[in-house]
Design a protein that fits this description.
Aldehyde Ferredoxin Oxidoreductase,  A, domain 1; 625 residues; 17 strands; 6-stranded mixed beta sheet; alpha+beta; Aldehyde Ferredoxin Oxidoreductase Protein, subunit A, domain 2; globular
């Protein structure tokens, strides 16, 4: 019998031999790591040898659901992709919603692990308990939408597909893994890993029931929580506008970076043109991820003009990267760039930030029209932005220089260009500014996947997310003290542990912030038949945090040593705008967080910390035999 909430089966694909086996994880693994990138961290740590080439055969690529994926839990629709990141060399993960995660479980599997490299393009079919590797020669070269259409023509409309586009096939570091046409597991360069393994897609289909310990209670809890969440202002924002409703307010309030992190709202007074109502005016259809009561997604259409498009609605991160970061207020152009990224399979955050880097290099004279093939990369040039996005997607023209992200592009350009490449460890930074929420600086630098904006820390409290039920664990600290840099460590630890659990259990951050934190404990108990308390669940989060960071340390990478660009923390401080004069004391936040976690001043967990979390197998790697 599988642990309730799980299917108890993982498909392990040996790509070199074309062989598939099925593993049944021990019950204790599910109860220690849940699923998602919790179980993923266990697999990556134990199956990827130290020093492995992220794009070589020793790396793995795993797609993993969680015990709440496909259940009545609020927004239980996520899956995680994990492996060693080719962008940063660290533990890599990316998560996504849509229908793929639940349908993965309905196919009879909790996930799939790819090992080695295939000689030819292939895709994996998980079909009602059966796993089969198929030739993808006819799919190679197709974009994401064409791939999904071709597979649905073969297997019917009830399948779900996760695939890479031509950018992943080309092993570009900007590659994302796409599902449901415009949903992206975009971070960490894992689409690049998928391309390096010559895996075009995973197709999932089936109707197998997920065993749950108390499904009736989960459904009853869901009904009450949906009523409660609909009274939340956060729910109204996401339900009415999706994340696009945040853009103008984020620019005005100092959350959204402007002009490659060097500007303020004064440089972009037309933010309303790429936000909320303006985006809604182009939307012709809403959609929701599997059984989501919020429904933040949508499709937009521009009928005429140079940027005519019919595709997914751009999310806040995309609007920020292609809008304020480039001073572009042409919404159809942003929609067009978003559609190019979705179809070719590119991370919009990294792509937009890399464009902003290039635009600043152009402004500073480090590159010229001769370098760009005649493109004038001037701030606000919407046409140049779209053309350059197309060039990156096809690895043509100046796009070839930018196709591996800002860090690599700065090395190719030289001339001191690295000053304008805003990244941590090779990962471009998302559209949330530590100068407004200083806890973000800690998340960006100290999470196992650097630059991670969907990892909670004290910033979630500073940003006003209504994560009720754990405040008493902050040691008296609250959001009003956000610029007092001491005393935040407990909030950082609690919030990051909670988010590790959310990512491991298979739920969506947007749903979680609309309901009390205790709901995660209750749903896990209802699904898995456990009797966990909040302390038990947060301990699982701590275990996942320590194992993820242990992978980096075994690779010789200390998050303490990751360079944080001065612009992110106000060095020098902005001279205008909502965060005028702010300089974040990241050193204090870092030191106190290490102490709170039981890590030494280098950010290395002590042997006692690891053993207390059941991570005895890590101790020899970090502390010797």
């Amino acid at each position: 019998m599988a642990v309730p909430g799980t299917m108890g089966r993982i498909a392990v694909v040996n790509l070199a031999e074309g062989h598939i086996s099925t593993e049944t994880p021990a019950d204790e693994l599910y109860k220690s790591y849940l699923g998602g990138y919790g179980l993923g961290a266990y697999y990556v740590y134990n199956r990827v040898p130290k020093g492995a080439d992220a794009l070589g055969p020793e790396n793995i690529l795993a797609f993993l659901s969680g015990p709440l994926t496909g259940t009545p839990a609020i927004c239980g629709n996520r899956f995680q992709v994990v492996g060693k990141s080719p962008k940063t060399g660290t533990f890599g993960d990316a998560n996504c919603g849509g229908d793929f995660g639940p349908k993965l479980k309905f196919s009879g599997f909790d996930g799939a692990i790819f090992e080695g490299i295939s000689e030819k393009p292939v895709y994996l079919l998980l079909d009602d308990g059966k796993a089969e590797l198929k030739d993808a020669g006819d799919l190679w070269g197709l974009d994401v939408c064409e791939t999904e259409d071709a597979l649905k023509a073969l297997y019917g409309d009830k399948i779900a597909v996760a695939s890479i586009g031509p950018v992943g096939e080309a092993v570009s570091l900007l590659a994302a893994i796409m599902n449901d046409r415009d949903r992206a597991a975009g971070r960490s360069g894992l689409g690049t890993v998928m391309g390096s393994k010559r895996v075009k897609a995973i197709v999932v289909r089936g109707s197998q029931a997920i065993p749950m310990a108390d499904e009736a209670k989960m459904k009853a809890d869901r009904r009450e929580l949906v009523k409660e969440m609909r009274t939340s202002g956060m729910y109204d924002l996401f339900a009415n506008f999706g994340t696009s409703g945040m853009t103008a307010g984020a620019v005005a309030g100092g959350d959204c970076p402007v002009k490659n992190w060097a500007g303020t709202e004064e440089d972009f007074p037309t933010a309303a043109k790429v936000s909320d109502e303006a985006v809604q005016d182009l939307q012709y259809k809403k959609y929701a991820c599997w059984h989501c009561p919020v429904g933040c997604g949508g499709f937009v259409k521009v009928e005429d003009g140079p940027f005519a498009v019919d595709g997914g609605k751009p999310e806040y991160e995309t609007l920020g990267c292609f809008g304020p970061m480039l001073l572009v207020d042409d919404l159809p152009a942003i929609c067009k760039a978003n559609d190019i990224c979705n179809r070719y399979g590119m991370d919009t955050i990294s792509t937009g930030c890399t464009l902003a880097f290039a635009f600043e290099c152009y402004e500073k004279g480090l590159i010229t029209k001769e370098d760009t093939g005649g493109l004038e990369l001037t701030w606000g040039n919407a046409a140049a932005m779209v053309t350059l996005t197309e060039q990156i997607s096809k690895l043509e023209g100046f796009g070839k220089v930018l196709a591996d992200g800002a860090k690599v592009a700065s090395e190719r350009i030289g001339k001191g260009a690295g000053e304008y490449a805003i990244h941590i460890g090779g990962e471009e930074i998302a559209m949330h500014d530590p100068r407004l929420s200083p806890g973000l600086a800690s998340s960006y630098k100290l999470d196992a996947t650097p630059g991670r904006h969907t990892q909670f820390s004290a910033w979630a409290v500073e940003a006003g997310f209504p994560l009720g039920g754990v405040e008493e664990r902050y040691g008296g600290w609250d959001a009003e003290k956000k610029y007092d840099y001491t005393g935040k460590a407990k909030a950082h630890r609690v919030q990051s542990a909670l988010m590790h659990v959310v990512n491991a259990e298979g739920c969506c951050m947007f749903g979680v912030v609309c309901i009390p934190a205790q709901a995660q404990v209750d749903f896990l108990n209802g699904a898995m038949g456990t009797d966990w308390t909040m302390d038990d669940v947060l301990a699982i989060g701590d275990r996942i945090a320590n194992l993820r960071i242990a992978f980096n340390l075994r690779e010789g990478l200390k998050n303490k040593n990751f360079k944080v660009p001065g612009r992110l923390v106000g060095k020098p401080p902005l001279e205008a705008g909502a965060t005028k004069g702010v300089t974040v004391d990241l050193e204090t936040q870092q030191r106190e967080y290490f102490e709170e976690m039981g890590w030494d001043e280098e950010g290395v967990p002590s042997a006692a910390t690891l053993e207390g979390l059941g991570l005895d197998f890590v101790v020899p790697d970090l502390h010797g035999a």
